[in-house]
Amino acid sequence: MTLTNADVIRALRDVSGAAHVLEDDEARARYGMDRTTLVPPAPCCVVRPGSTAQVQAIVRLAREHRIALVPSGGRTGLSGGAVAARGEVVVSLERMNRLLQFNPEERSITVEAGMITAALQQHAAAHGLLYAVDFASAGSSHIGGNIATNAGGIKVIRYGMTRDQVLGLEVVDGRGEVLELNRGLVKNNTGPDLRHLFIGSEGILGIITSATLALRNAPGPLDVMLLAVRDFASIMDVLRVFTRAIRLDAFEFFGHNGLERVLERLQRKAPLGAEAPFYVLLEFEHQGADAPDQVMRLFEQCVQAGWVLDGVLSQTLAQARELWLLRESMSETLARWLPYKNDIGLRIPVLRAFIERAQALVEREYRGLEVVWYGHVGDGNLHLNVLKPETMAGADFAALCERVTHGIAALVRDCGGSISAEHGVGLLKKHILHYTRSPAEIEALRQIKRVFDPAAIMNPGKVFDP
Ligand SMILES: Cc1cc2nc3c(=O)[nH]c(=O)nc-3n(C[C@H](O)[C@H](O)[C@H](O)COP(=O)(O)OP(=O)(O)OC[C@H]3O[C@@H](n4cnc5c(N)ncnc54)[C@H](O)[C@@H]3O)c2cc1C
Q1: pLDDT tens, 337-371?
Q2: CA 286 to CA 298: how far, in whole Å?
Q3: What is the CATH number assigned to the segment(s) 222-331?
Q4: Domains of the chain: which residue ranges?
Q5: pTM greater than the 0.85 cutoff
């Protein structure tokens, strides 16, 4: 039996209580979109379950009546994965934000999926521990959203991606079954590990309801260094020299034009005397009295080789924060120009060759448009942002970027990379997925989706779905 929207809303109210089903225009617009603005939101309604049992009841109802569901976290996604534009029901996990268990003896924590990332970080810090995934949207994104996108961020070079923190997951799959995946175990060799299918699945297999995550011993005080670098090839030389000598917590880069925009927005002076095409931000643990000498020797080596033109090493926590602010403000600063974002993943040895060819392509194809490069270059992750000129119509800009992106994606494929390093595929990247995942892989993904989501109700139209 096909339900009308009014029937759906009535049934959802029975499950989660009337106060937790929202159908007004403001709520539908707010919950129906993420940080991408290309597709206008149009969900049927929003439901905010308060327990796994309620999530299960919602999925079973949806399965029975073929109602499309869009799992929704903090809606900070940059690929349109949480966008509901086709009358779907948005399932927001925001009420499911409780701490369920904290185990200091095994340095683990179990939380509901709707916990804000920063809240988890703070909880770990209060016990002298670290939740190692961090990025600029940690104040709004959810743990469930981080897991569903396998979020990366600024600490990957030392601690890995979100996948590397997940010890166990509770999910409600598209069949309406509650699955306990890996039960928080470190050692569990009992066949393929289904936990990893749900990490990075962008809501297309089911809804993550809680997770057990690994915590780390908190590092000692961290020093931050900002370097002005002669060209992109020199960034790779600096990376090689520093990674061989010390353990890095972060190795980020950004272009000069991006820095200028950030300084203007933050009303700050330039952090260095010299101007350079690129800047590198390094973070590393302060390791006692000898460390500054060692770091200065590495710095001087880079200057003498001609790779680095200038640099500054933080002397206080406040200075370290100021330097980080320059990098962390990049995404929010550029948002004003409605940037078209490419999120490229490559292996370190091919980065130099890639950037040479990509810069030539970008200069040729985006003539007259401003392009800003930044990213987590120490992990091979480059963000290529094309800013929309104010005088250019949105549709013309989108058409141009779509066209050029095929050229970029082909280049990424030829260099053995990925068209999405950390933002996911969602709606915005699905037309270029085939460049870096083979037809056989995509077919296997489709079949896996059929197993967990036989009625095709989980986030339809995303990742590889038409
Ligand atoms: C300023 C800024 C900086 C950023 N920096 C980074 C960065 O450095 N690294 C990085 O990786 N990302 C970054 N992002 C992108 C974004 O913050 C991450 O992708 C984040 O993990 C998304 O989490 P969310 O809770 O906001 O998810 P949402 O945007 O709500 O959802 C993302 C996807 O996950 C699905 N989903 C959400 N919750 C669940 C659930 N419980 N169960 C199943 N599926 C679910 C959604 O359907 C959607 O497909 C940044 C974003 C901004 C705005």
Answers
A1: 999 999 999 999 999 999 999 999 999 999 999 99
A2: 15
A3: 3.30.70.2190
A4: 5-95, 99-217, 222-331, 338-440
A5: yes
